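As a warm-up, study this chain.
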Amino acid sequence: MLTKILSISGKPGLYKLLSTGKNLNVVESLADGKRIPAYLQEKMVALSDVSIYANESDVPLRDVLKKIKEKEGGRQVSLSPKAPNKDFFAFMQEVLPDYDKDRVYASDIKKLINWYNILIDSKIDFENEEKAETPEAEKEGA
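Now compare it with the structure written out below.
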């Protein structure tokens, strides 16, 4: 499902990809359900393609979101966007102790928390998604 959830540069929030055309995509805001066109010249990134910098290797966003969900018990993160930066770094240290402190900024952590909260509101279950995708990978390896 994270392959169909997009972040669009210059637009707040997250969007669900509904259809793809020659020059534009039709997306639906996860926040309010409004459908809008997203033109190909706009920078769009699927959440499945996002990862967090770590010291050893980059960690896929899906894994980080699952760790946040475990930490928060499936509820939204209650950290205020106006909290001091040290609170965001402390939160990230709990969720992903191996994150790269030189390349992950407070603004990145704020965006991560915002995305997590939007996905929780939209009732997207990360564990079930991964189980649904696993059999495909097992077939290729067999």
